[in-house]
Protein 1
Amino acid sequence: MAAAAAASASSVASSSLVPKKTFSFAPLHASLPVPKFLNGSGRRPSSSSSLRKTGWGSVLVAPSGRKAVVCSSSSSSSSLPLPAALLFDCDGVLVDTEKDGHRISFNETFAERELGVSWDVQLYGELLKIGGGKERMTAYFDKTGWPVKAPKTEEERKEFIASLHKRKTELFMALIEKKLLPLRPGVERLIDEALAKGVKVAVCSTSNEKAVAAIVSFLLGPDKADKITIFAGDVVPRKKPDPAIYLLAAETLGVDPSSCVVVEDSAIGLSAAKAAGMTCIVTKSGYTAEENFVTADAVFDCIGDPPEVRFDLTFCANLLQKQYVS
């Protein structure tokens, strides 16, 4: 399997404990430029608009109740040029891993080290506004105070965080190997369609490369895994919402960013994709359903399998065409 190598990670400091109710992280993507939203009417919807599926495809439903067809895979022209590459986020897109996968593995690691730390479902949802597991732990300890067993110097704390993350990844991979966390609906179908038509496929994630590789290999199988390039972990120095990982993917795959379609599930991932100049479809996940996706090119609850297919490769080609003519 093709996989990219690593670069550097996070910084560390300390503070004192604060009550959980006051614990909050601001989104890191607020300062990024907001690209134009493209839909079937060529207009940008309000933040309260939503995309709903009908028998004809996806429909934009505005607060006024007026509807505008965004795109329909059944009515699209098969002669449209396909995307040069289909780029998937991992957690929340390939597998809904966060609540019952990564969170559980973090907590098991904390318990093993007797750190006196446990992340509940609501708190972990706040922490997901920070891209990357090592960065997530560092920000949490900076905010709430470092455990008594943690070292005192910055360099030692970086090593401490790295060791926690390594153990957390081992525990997470055990869950994946047991296939306790299934692929989301439509993921394998869309990947199969892309590979069959010569579209390059990659996974671009802030998660550890070994964990992402395990998901791809164990859940999609080794034959597909050999055809999928992985960009993950510390392969870039700045993680999402920075566009670095998507720009690296385009450069490595030898494709123009404007010819790529990204499938994301979070606002920080969407910001990264749009800042890279790419078309982005959002498939909402358990933790991200209420996030603001106004800059997305389309939003769905999932990719979908028959008879509930939400979109296919032709739909992706239609979105690219709308970008070119707008």
Protein 2
Amino acid sequence: MTEASRTAKRAALVYNPIKVDADALRASTTRHAQDAGWAEPLFFETTVEDLGDEVAREALDAGVDAVLVAGGDGTVRAVSEAMSGSGVPLTIVPSGTGNLLARNLRLPLDDSDTMVRATFEGETQPIDVGFARLRRGDGETVEHAFVVMGGMGLDAAMIANTSGDLKKKVGWVAYVDGAARSLVKARPFPVMYQVPGHRMHRANVQSVLIANCGSLPAGLELIPEASIADGELDIAIFQPKNPLGWLLVWRRVAWDNSVLRRFRAGREILALRTRDNSIRYTKGTGIDVAASAPQPVQLDGDEFGEATHMAVRIAAGSLLVAVPEGHTSPALAAVRAALAAD
């Protein structure tokens, strides 16, 4: 090994071999690294046992200067968990069916070469990462990260009831089938919840959803105001009391948030409308949710079993993401504004 190769920067690629064309992606990463004068990249495959967090830590321990991740939302979540607070930039190469973080950052979804090149020639922006500490019914406690959203209740049950085979065939649309299965058995459950700095609430809810960013596929805006870089989490408490309540939930997400809010006239209509309590919104640096019985939990679209207590916190600006030079998006607008102010 020459002195130049020992001192050159090095990137690592973490990829799910089921989700990507491994040969093409490795070749693209190697080519761009060589063009930038970096050393030959390191390559790590995820497995059923290791979704990407362990190999990402291996890459960090090896002293890499950048990490690329290619896989589904679960792979991105796991690698982000390992890299939060490391100061090493992460490049998201969209793969799989969801790509929810990439969608919220408005990254190119069908141009992996552009994202690979951004590792070596692009810019970096800090984004927030959420961490959820879960306490099981037997008292066991675990903590995991999420970069898009986590939840307790019906949203997690919907994911648990979604057919894995159907998801592989039709992507995120498969969740419609899971939702239909879950709604039949959906029952509200009592919780106590508290956002730091606010009083404690008791409510019968269908779901508590905690969002780091709020856009879903098909142009749906679950939480339009959610920002991935404001140091806060946006929280939606779903508490419809009857079928009409569910219609109001759907109207809020599919029409009010996703259509009307885009136009000034629509926003004026919303300002005049009587508010309903089918969805209650709040925000803060975290939330504690305690349920009387174990409830299903999901993080970034993956099920994480059941828990009686979920304590969520935000790690503000703890993850550096690489984006193409000059790239911008509403999700990153707060970051750019803050940097410009400084």
Protein 3
Amino acid sequence: MTPSRFRSLLLGLFYVALASVPLSVAWFSPRWHFGLLLASEPLMALTVGILIVGLLAGWVAWPRTARRLDKLIGLHVGALFLSTVFSGDVLVSAKYFATILLYTGFGYGVQRVLRLERTEWFRALGALALGTSLLAAYALLRHASTGISYTFSYFVARPFLEHGHTNLTVVLEPLILLLNMVLLYHPRAQNQRGRFLVTILLTGVLMVVAFSYSRASYISLLAQALLLLAFSGREAGVRLLLPWAVASCLVLSAWQVINIAHPHPPTATKTNLLHELGSVSDFSSANESNAERMSRWVFSLDLFQQEPVVGVGPGTFPDRYLEFVRHDPAHPNYTPTLRRMNAHNLYLDWLAEAGALGLLSGLLLLGYLLVRQLKWVFRWEQTPAQVGFTAYLLFFLLHSFTQDFWQEPRVIVLFWLAVGLQRHYARAAMPVAPAAMGKPEPALDTHA
């Protein structure tokens, strides 16, 4: 097989797998989990496996040098591996470790080796956006036909790992950022028809967010809006005010209409949107979601004290927490649901499961990405790409204080794609050295 033919086939499989990532929930068959076990994870594993075969066969070239980011990823993976070796449940940790390798290899490894070109980046993001849009449309149709359902929101966001959880809205936040960027900067969105179409799309996505009862996402989207206003300035920010005002009115109206049409949803307690927004800061036992978060944060610190260096083992937090609440029913934030979730904090999860080594290596990795982004922002003239990537990275880091994204493929795959795309844009924006102007190829490879 020729290298060009192999690369084309691998890219096609990569696009299909990306489109399947948001859609991999168990809607179709609860018994067989169709879509969960038979779609995205096998496609990702197949893509990574074929990439490795291509590297060994010489159909694609190995990266010439190891970047600093590659070394930091290896350092963090090494810390997780060490924690897996000393885990209290090696089988659970080994499965967790394997999934981390799969998601990182698919989201970062494929685009790192293939060095995607501009059009290939757009196709990859388009495939991911297509799957995400179909998922949002499906959620809206269900809400319109059965009522606003808290349980349904969790059902659609059902994770790949049994012990993980990420709300659907976290998957939609990058799509909302993209629509905001279009409203701010795209020429076609500056005329009346373009702004109307983008506003309708924004309204539909915000409805899914509003109907999901995700308080953390409400705060995250507010932080995203403030970041955009801070970076884009008052004049550009005005372009967001009217579309967002119209979208907010339509969301509130739709909420009331659906509650009137379905006064008793089959799987949810009737509530009020404004009440949900006001409950963000309520961490009492009356607010199960927030109380459980606080409980898990405190328990994470207890686990860290048990194994401060290498942690209790990647992926073992849920079983430890279940054992804790079952043997301590007097725990003030105990709830009878016993949902198998994570620590609801990426940094505390690293601290508890991988110890000080896992937290330090993870912070070095994320810190390097943040410093690299800030250097790009302050070194060159501000561009829409700089604004978008900065807002994305900052609200990812902020939202990680209330959620653990490292085990959620629908979020972490997009994260690694954003990391690669940011480097692509940053290197393309760099001025070419005068000595390289006369060479056939520029000294800076914009595909890297």
Protein 4
Amino acid sequence: MGLSRPHKVGNGVSARWVSLFCIASFFLGVLVVNRLWGVPDPEKIDEEASSLEKRQLRALHLNVNCEKKEAADRAGDILFQVSQTHDVIMALDKTISSLEVQLAAARASKADKGEGSPVVTKTGSKPLKERQKVFFVMGIMTAFSSRKRRESIRETWMPQGYELKKLETEKGIIMRFVIGHSATPGGVLDRAIDAEDEKHKDFLRLNHIEGYHELSSKTQIYFAAAVAKWDADFYIKVDDDVHINLGMVGSTLARHRSKPRTYIGCMKSGPVLANKGVKYHEPEYWKFGEEGNKYFRHATGQIYAISKDLATYISVHRHILHRYANEDVSLGSWFIGLDVEHIDERSLCCGTPPECEWKAQAGNPCAASFDWSCSGICKSVERMEEVHQRCGEGDEAIWHTSF
């Protein structure tokens, strides 16, 4: 017939369909290959991820280091500011303390001119316009019956006359026997002290009635009177049966001159004696706890020194400071609760010969000597000269000692 039929391949599939199938297979292959080329290599993925993680960690580490450095810098700045603030506070504290001392001294000086003065003033005497600036004031506690003791001191370690005045002007050392008045002012006892003072000019007279059981009160009034009269770095209390080497005392105090609120002496803590009739009986023993307890640490009463601010504190607050039976205990109690440095100075409590003699021969003279068994030099009137000869630093030592 005139129509031609499509040519068939061996199994009956036409060539056209074979061509279409080949073309379709070609495009399908291209599509599959393109898809396979778009999938990244797993190892490369791991490498890239690892590299990215390292970069992130490095950035984080740098950030942390920067933060640490900034924190350290801030901490350093804070510490520096704290240090500066502390220095400023300390400077202000010293300034305030100095102003308080000056104010208290001015009040004490003003009180010295009015009623209730701690000092007995003579009629017609001119008030001091300004307190004399000195190194230390030494008050030698004495009684009406102790004239021979005073003479034994004048003949040994205490300069007299011109030398006493020279000691004040050249060394800034004031030395006075400290005494009050009798129960009948103007009586024979007071007149005897007036005559002795007229001769030696070495007394500080207090507005105080003398009596053994009034030693705590006398100590308070002494410091108030001394602060009102002299502007000293230190104020010393010493008994009139103790031997003193003035050069050693001056050298000892000079080591602590720049310190505030210093309390210098032979520190002890003796038993509180509750039994009546015994020496140093403490009527208020119950305040110190159970029977058999000891006192708080305080300087023994034969000799001690306190700095200007502590003496001023006593002067200002003397009317409300409690007084115990023993004056050294009283003094120690006044400083409890205050920021006070207790300095245990053993050169202020040497024994009499041979102890102080050995130390003097070794080139280390004692500042003060006495017998513990007698709370002073036993039979001091008879023995003061001997102690001075064997344990003294030499009469010229005070003039060659620099403070």
